User: Fold this.
Amino acid sequence: MQLTRERVGAALGMAFAVFCLLAYFAVPLMALHSSLADTLLRWAGIPNAGWEPVAIFPGLQPGSGPLVPVPTFEQVSEGARFALILGIVVLLIVARRFSLFRNLANFLIVLLCVSAVVNVFFDTFQLQSKVFGQIWLRQELLVWLLMPFVSVLLFLLPQPNLGVGLGWMALVQVYGFLFSALRFVFCLGMLHYTGLLFMPLLWFALGTLSDLLFLLFFYSISVYRASGKLWGVRSSWQSQL
Amino acid sequence: MIVLCMLVLGAYAARHYHLGFSRMRLEHPQESNELVGFVVPRVTVFIPMHNEEKVARDILQALVDCDYDWELLEVIPVNDRSTDGTRAIVDEFAARYPFIKPYHRTKGAGGKPAALVEATELATGEIYLMFDADYVPGRAVLKMLTAPFVDPEIGAVMGRVVPHNIGDSLLSGLLSLERSAGYQSVQQARFNLGFTAQFGGTVGGVRAAALRAVGGWNPESLTEDTDLTFALLLNGWRTAYVNRAECYEEVPQDWGVRRRQLSRWVTGHTECLHNYWPDLLEARFLSGREKVDAIFLLAMYLTAPVIVIGWIASLLLFFIPQAHAIPVLPVAMLIIGYLLFSNQATFLEIGVATLLDGTRLRALLIPLSILNFFANTGAICNALRKFYWNRFWGSGGDGWYKTHRTRLDSKGQSFAGAQPAGAARQSVAGLYHASNEGMGD
Assistant:
């Protein structure tokens, strides 16, 4: 696992090559993402009137955003409002009972409360599903483009076996793409049934935080396996939880 | 605002990656352990104690069992106004072993630094080593910690802290990951790269002459260890790090205890930042990279409020429709890059430490570190708020807080305290045995 300058250079060069490849195929990738999301929307029974072009970045052909009906705050069902209050209560209980979760729960409570305040007092604020699709695609496209560099640093270089490292890189890239479509559809479903009530929370929890968490999850497994490869499977108190 | 946050955190992320990969390269490890046995100066070991009856017996027995020549060893348990059975335990050991010379403190200012100032007057060693009372040093630790002092530039030395209660709670498991990253990755990498290691005030030592040269302990500081590290650095002394000098500690199992511990560290650390940054920048014998590293180290807790500001700014952006229309690729790239790279950087250090230690099962806890990350961020922000409030209004801070220890095993049984010496010896021996199995020594 000893790193050499050559190994680091080759790895970063490969990351750059994958980055260029992904940038070149960015438009088909976004189209595939939308197609996947469309299939999932139909499976989930979430109505979608179609897809409209949305600008992602200058110089790049537009992607597409869904036309899922989004209710205003007045149109949101009583159940959704109750779910918001219930969500806050549950998070308050978590914050009170589990001290380690307290700050995360408090942050999520703030997101829900801010959302409630905005919905009640700033009813002109609207987020259409098309715009949501636009900001989601922008973020995720950048995640896919930067993922090769993150993967190289976290998954390829620390691995004692090059083939395994490359496998982890490919897995993370593919999973990131599929997981993004799944999260996107879930958010669209919530947008359709509950309006904007949960969107700030979901944008944070299923956006940034989920990207971070799934990377950490894969990273922990890869370190676990690499450690086993380097040291052998041992059963001593230091390796026990 | 977001761009400023990104720049600050991006710089810290770059530092974390640099240290993580530097450690992974395994290049130029400075290993002083080959000198063990050749350098045997007279050593004074301080053990600051305040109501330590649960743990006092363990550490005293462990020091008795150390392979250091008793003729050259002096152990000073600094019993700082204990109201429990600490005094009796210390006196019992002092009666049996002549090199244990207790100092019972009954008055004066509270806190470890103040107690150390008085106890240092009694010391006769060339090297002062320090262990917190709840620590259990291994047999060879004293020799390992004294070996680097053969280098006359070395003013202080720091060993590695290894938690022994990893499985007692989720928090202790997560803290063990944090400790691994801090010592195995960061401390070792910084030392290998020629930066001064951070003296932690326990499992470490200081040259008596160096301590005198910088004016002794700073009794005003909440983190006398960090204060000493930088006082030494500014006077031309370096601090060495000895990764193999492992000592076992009990990490907090309860978040309340951890929060107070963190709060003290944040206050003391930030105080040192304010005290030393002008001198660090002006120090002519420090290279530019050493200055940058020192400032980064002292300012590390300030990243927490920067993160919070970044989150709040991101939240505001979500509710501003015009912000959704910003299509500037480089800015967006920076934001996402920061989110991915900055957040992953510290976890890379944890992963590297886990790989080097071969503690594979603990690696599965890495995703849960996010909870520790959130919890720490809040606690640090709160501590900084108090620090700057007190500083602004000129009021006193929280003062010294002694970290609460339970010394209980995972079944809730007392680990060794309040048991006969024989049982204590057995427990300590058990730890040595476990360390040999687990750490591949």
Summary: The radius of gyration of chain A is 21 Å.
